[in-house]
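Final report, results section. Input specification for complex C-07:
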Amino acid sequence: MTISALSGITVLDLGQAFMGPYCGLLMQRLGADVIKIEPPQGEPYRRPTAIKGVEAVQFGLLNAGKRSLCIDLKTDEGRTVFTDLAATADVIIQNFAPGAFDRLVGVDDLLAANPRLIVASGSGYGSTGPRRDARAMDLTIQALAGVMATTGFPDSAPVRTGPAVVDFMGGAHLFGAVMAALVQRGTTGRGQHVEVALFDAIFPSLASNIGGLFDSDGEIPERTGNRHGGLGVAPYNVYKTADGWIAVLCLHDRHWAELCRIMERHDLVDDKRLSTNASRVKHMELLDRIVEEWTLERNSAELEVALNEGAIPSAPVQSLEVLLKDPQLKARGMFEQHRNADREWWTFGSPLRLADSPPPAENVPARLGQHTVEILRQKLMLPPERISELTATGAVIGDLPVGTVGVRV
Amino acid sequence: MTISALSGITVLDLGQAFMGPYCGLLMQRLGADVIKIEPPQGEPYRRPTAIKGVEAVQFGLLNAGKRSLCIDLKTDEGRTVFTDLAATADVIIQNFAPGAFDRLVGVDDLLAANPRLIVASGSGYGSTGPRRDARAMDLTIQALAGVMATTGFPDSAPVRTGPAVVDFMGGAHLFGAVMAALVQRGTTGRGQHVEVALFDAIFPSLASNIGGLFDSDGEIPERTGNRHGGLGVAPYNVYKTADGWIAVLCLHDRHWAELCRIMERHDLVDDKRLSTNASRVKHMELLDRIVEEWTLERNSAELEVALNEGAIPSAPVQSLEVLLKDPQLKARGMFEQHRNADREWWTFGSPLRLADSPPPAENVPARLGQHTVEILRQKLMLPPERISELTATGAVIGDLPVGTVGVRV
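Structure output:
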């Protein structure tokens, strides 16, 4: 029988919002026992949403399948429960504000007590450099790290990306760092502290923009709208169609030749001005006009079929609502609705597909503290009386029904 | 002595552009021997850039530190060299167009010949679903996967992100998948095929946008400019300053109270309309006006100091040129210039910081085929005569000086 890649690995997931919880989610989907440790008021996405006042869909998206352990880490007894658990765990994930985790428990102490432990710290700027103590979130990193300056149309203001790409880029890297540390532990028998900064994780994605800046000595606009980030490829744009927009690009000369054929512009195939990418880049405005004249007369779906047949990279711009019903998204199991007797929820699939690592059969979002008693019994072998004492003092909190926790933030 | 996390791991990196090469880069920075396998014309970033006609800066950014092996995989002998090497390797990375790698060499055959091998496939849509055969690039996935629809101002067209976030999100996930497979191999002794689709990898970053769509029953605009993706947090925006823009957000009530104090708007602290995030969200327009009135009168640097002192998440919008000289970027070693007798180049640092995995001392970009002879000797123990034969037929290509390879694409 095949077991999953991370079977037998225990993770204490102290993650907040996206970076930490996404790292934990990727581990859970590969078979790790991920224990989400929450404060008495629950994690932010358990709290009522701004408009409807219900539990946010984000909670299930990022946490279904994790067990819930509710500890008040502001109490001495709560912290002791946590450090006792850390002594039995393989991985701790934390992305608290700078310095907060170290004030709570010392990383060095945790590693001394459990030399096989991997402590994974996510932060805005990392533990070094002049900004190490600054508060950071997806939006502020987008501002500082050139994402906003390079996003948008040349004649309008800088704009952030719609999705929280910085937080998730950070989470994906943090997962990778934990896995690499597990690989190293396989050789050395020792864990270690690993860290990923959001600022570092998003930076390499500017490669094309940096390329354009260098190649043009800063002459090209910083924001290139829907054109290539370095204005280094043409055609490369999003074109209006009769009923929407379509993204089209020609990476190779053969794409361009094929596009001319599809557009029935046989006159252009042998046009010397357009025969190489370097020459097409010089005539970018002309090319964009030619392509858009053709797309404007046709529907996106019709264009997509024709371009796909010619193996030219293209896709219609889909709205979020249409995307959530997209057949490809469904086929890949990336966004799934589930229900049981208590509730219904949506959850993400994992982008990591390992042929020999079957995903968990069922990923149910836990109620706050649902597994508190079970975990203290299993992992720390605490007797019922001791668990009752801890519950009585508020150091830990047991199972609470959905909807009875949380205050509006 | 500490050795690196991936010491002793050999990677055959067939990556193209960003997704595959970034995965290889992350492995190289953790100590793997990454062999970049290139076609006779070199990888695309060796070819002259559109404007200056020099080797693109992207080549060094993503490939410095990898060895270069030049094979013509269109020849039978070239393919045999590749499969012989695959029998000695730990990991293969490939992100060719759909089906191309399987037409070249069968994944099942590779795994049968080397059961410890991990084959990592990156693609646009993955190997399943109705779009599995469609060509895809960063731009087209941004169009289809809701990134463009959610990026930009409500009253203007959808826009792609400036950085190639889809490609790099894919590369970071592909790295994570390879690491997880190495962890699993540590238990089972067996490798496997792993895959990551760009379409899957970018999707979870829409969590807030999906939250907003659900919470508002589709009433909020799809694109929210620089406001929160789900219009679920206020204040949360980018505000004009006397000399630029600054991103500011209040995630907690204490941030808001602190912001009121810094703005010297003590009258607002006890304003019931603004006491909780849910109520502030209802008065988003008002709040944005109040904050921007304050920021417009001050320089970004001055605002940043004040907001940092109050521990409020904020950061100025930095241009790409300013970013490349940013002290934090420098302190983190994320963008470094090097030179030797032959040339100068820039390369990325790795966002993955493992306390016990020292990065390579030096990362020099290889000339095309620089290590061809050395690798065939080391890994396949081929005698000089055989290497000469393979070179003579063009199945492999040895060292070529910088600038003598490549044609304009």
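Residues 403-409 of chain A have pLDDT under 50 and may be disordered. Chain A touches chain B through 156 residues (CB under 8 Å). This concludes the modelling results for the funded period.
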